[in-house]
Every structure is written in C-alpha cells, then in structure tokens.
Design a protein that fits this description.
The protein is an alpha+beta fold. The chain has a domain at 111-327. The protein has helices spanning 2-6, 12-24, 26-44, 54-68, 74-77, 87-137, 164-172, 253-256; strands at residues 211-213, 237-241, 246-247, 250-251, 271-275, 280-283. A 4-stranded antiparallel β-sheet has the order 1-2-5-6. The longest helix has 51 residues, at 87-137. Residues 326-330 have low confidence and may be disordered.
Length: 330
C-alpha cells in the first residue's frame, strides 16, 4: 500500500489512510523514508544501451549452441559401452540440486508466510471495517456478547460463555462475511464457510474463528467515542490473531514466561492487531497496547480462572477466539 502511495497508484481513500498512519506511526514513516531513498537510488541508474551488433552476436551464439548440443544419433552411441554421464557429473548434478533446494525451500516458506500474513491482515482489516460500520449504526459502540454470566473458561459446575458471540453480530448483521474470520495461517481453521441461519448467536465451532476479541461479556458497552479511549484509539487493541495464553479451554501459565508472547496462528512469529482507530498493524510480542499494555492479559493479574475482566478502560484483554461448550477440554 505504501509503495502504491509513493508511486501515485492508490485511490483517494487509500491515500488518506496512508497519510493518517504516517502521522501516527513512526515506524511507518521510517519505512516510507527507506522506500523513497531506494526509489531515488534507482533513478540514478541509467538504462544501458546495447551495442548495435549485440543482436547479431546473440543470434550467432544461439545457433552455435544449438549445433554443439544437438541430440546424438544412434550411431554415436553404438558400441561405445559407456554411460551418458560419468559418476562425477552425476554427483555434481546432485550437489547442485541439493544446493538449489536448500536455497529455494526456505525462500518459498518465507514467501508463503508473507502471503499468509498479508491475507490475514486483509481479513483483520475487513473485520475492522465491519466493526466500524457496526459502531456507526450503534452510537459508536462495539458489539457485545450480551451474556448474563462473565465466565469465559470452564469451571466446576459451569459452562463457559463464548466472547466470540460479540463478533458474530458482525456476521448476523451483514457487516462482515463468515470467511474473513479464518486466518489462512491457522492450522486449526476449517478452510470452509458455514451456513448462517436466524437462530444462530455464535460461531458453531472453534475452527470457524481464528481471532481473539476484546472482553465483551456483560452489559458494559465499549465505546470508541469515550473521552478516555478516543485519545488513545491508535494504541487500543481490540482484536488480533488468537491469544496463545488461553487455548483449549484452559489457562497456559507457561506461555507468560515465554518471550515474545505471540499467536500460534503465524508460528509464533507475530500477529496482526486491529486498533480502535481501525488500523491494522503487524506486531511481535504482546506488549503492544496502550503504554505497552499486554493485550492478552489483565494488568496486574498472573493467575486466571476465567472470570477476570479488564482492569480499566484502556486495558486490552483479548479473550479466547471461541469458548463454546461443545469443544472445551476440562
């Protein structure tokens, strides 16, 4: 998007989005400077002109190579008793193939991961657009799960309430399609969509949602127009690739001690995060909220039983992607 902006190839809406991010994001401004320097360097490189006789020489070499590499006739093979390739030649070919594989496979894996990362960012951006439109229709408030109970992990004698029911309102209200809630890099994702009917209030299974959403259980509305949140909208995380701290219905304390804490969606290399200004940013580690807030944990809490709530208005606390009772492991 930034390259298109510098080359003058983006539309007015995208240009405005880039300009807003350039005002707010120092890293993005630094990237723009690097790209501008690269473009300036390329402009200094002249296009070399080939000599007039270059075409004739090239055609002559192609013709010569064609004669020297012409397929041998059967008479040339008759009675020789020797293999077409020597063992040394075969070993050289095998070594070259191994070297090429060693170079190509990591590159291909990196290219695949970058493609998944970009596709995931597009998904999160589309969810953000749906959330923005939902807020415009609902007095700047983000969707709630409207649950009377706030327990989002299973406990003795209780079933959890799924926080993803809030996000499902974007589906049932036609603000976002069901497919964008699955990350291509999520190994647990279904890779398919489900049919929505009027009786549904949540995603039918964990495999249909790969993203964690800000704690939205209860009746307290999260309002973007809040005098507390509006000044920090660019830092207030409200959605990301699914949390690694709460998976399969339980709290994983060992993850907290790991560094950095990153979603499993992208092999723990990082995660796409949606902020309250509707911007999507790729982040590494969990301390990417307001003033370095850990977006996957409650401020000051180290033990969890599934009833915790955000410590304050600017405390991002992204709950498990899905906590439906049918797939919970107790």
């Amino acid at each position: 998007m930034l390259i298109d902006y510098l080359l003058g190839r983006c539309d007015q809406a995208t240009r405005r989005q880039v300009e807003l991010r350039l005002e707010e994001d120092p890293e993005f401004r630094a990237l723009r400077g690097d790209l501008e320097n690269a473009f300036d360097a390329l402009k200094l490189l002249g296009w070399p002109e080939a000599p007039e006789e270059q075409a004739d020489r090239t055609l002559a070499r192609i013709a010569s190579a064609g004669q020297s590499t012409a397929a041998p006739t059967p008479h040339q093979f008759a009675g020789t008793g020797r293999p077409t390739f020597s063992l040394r030649e075969l070993a050289a070919i095998a070594a070259a193939a191994i070297i090429m594989a060693m170079l190509f496979v990591p590159w291909a894996r990196q290219a695949r991961n970058r493609a998944f990362q970009g596709k995931c960012a597009a998904n999160v951006g589309q969810i953000g657009t749906g959330m923005k439109n939902y807020a415009l229709d609902n007095q700047d408030s983000l969707p709630l799960s409207h649950a009377s109970k706030a327990a989002w992990l299973p406990g003795l004698g209780r079933n959890p309430v799924s926080n993803s029911a809030g996000l499902f309102q974007l589906v049932s209200g036609y603000y976002a399609p069901v497919g964008v809630f699955q990350c291509a890099a999520d190994d647990d994702a279904a890779g398919e969509v489900f049919t929505v009917n009027y009786e549904m209030t949540d995603f039918p299974a964990a495999k249909y949602i790969s993203y964690s959403y800000q704690h939205a259980l209860g009746t307290k509305l999260l309002s973007r127009a809040s005098s507390i949140l509006l000044p920090v909208a660019g830092e207030m995380a409200v959605l990301s690739d699914k949390t690694p701290v709460f998976e399969n219905g339980r709290f994983h304390a060992e993850v907290i001690s790991s560094s950095p804490i990153s979603s499993r969606n992208h092999g723990r290399s990082g995660h796409n995060v949606l902020y309250l200004d509707w911007g999507v940013r790729w982040r590494q580690g969990a301390r990417v909220g307001v003033n370095g807030d850990n977006i996957f944990l409650v401020q000051g809490e180290e033990e969890y039983d599934g009833t915790e709530t955000p410590a304050n208005a600017t405390d991002s606390f992204l709950l498990p992607a899905w906590s439906g009772k049918n797939e919970i492991q107790k």
